[in-house]
Amino acid sequence: MTDHEKQIDDFGKNDDFWLFGYGSLIWKPPPHYDQRIPGYIQGYVRRFWQASEDHRGTPEAPGRVVTLIDRAHWDTLTDHHASPIKTWGAAYHIPREKVSEVREYLDIREINGYSIQFTPFHPAISSTTPSSPSPSPSPSPINCLVYIGLPSNPQFLGPQDPQQLAAHIIKSKGPSGENREYLYLLEEGLKGLSVESGDEHVADLVRRARDIERLEEQGQKKEEDKEIEGDGNAGDDEVGDKLHRVGSTEEQEEVEK
What we know:
Oligomer: single chain
Order of helices and strands: HEEEEHEHEEHEEHH
Largest sheet: 5 strands, antiparallel
Number of strands: 9
């Protein structure tokens, strides 16, 4: 057993099982947690660069979900978005008696290309109150388990054009629902963590996806208007034809008289 495997095996035995969520875990937490703390990690970059064949896509048409890229590796790549120093998310504490059950749940949920890593998590500093005008001291970092789709995993896609990525997210869906729902819920979840927890990569994809939706709605409305207009013209032709037939009959009757 390697040191990393031993660390995974021993993690949580001292009632210290903390899980860091940076994607769907922010709005869809694991079962049995008894504490949830907003905060951030450092040294990583969150990107929609992981293919999803089991949740927001299918093997035939994979969706896109987030993973974390080591910042040192990210610095060697060409990316369309800058990245903040802090990657915000939420940490969940799992009671010792539930660790085995939750681990099994997470291994199934995160099986599609993700592997277990560990990282220091920095809890958000509590805001000041009238009775405590000065900020609270910075809490100590918490060692957290985190599921990451490493660049070596077959579902890792690497840098992608933001417009093409947004369009792909809009059209994708899987057993867990539409891919766009994942994107929109992630942005909402991030906004709820802190005043500084926004992510420009996520926010830009949301803007692009919303624009695509608006254009699709406008195109659909134009098609509907054309159909209505076509039905109206057909009705006018039908009425005119009836009037013409009536007039022709009257003219014939007048001749016969």
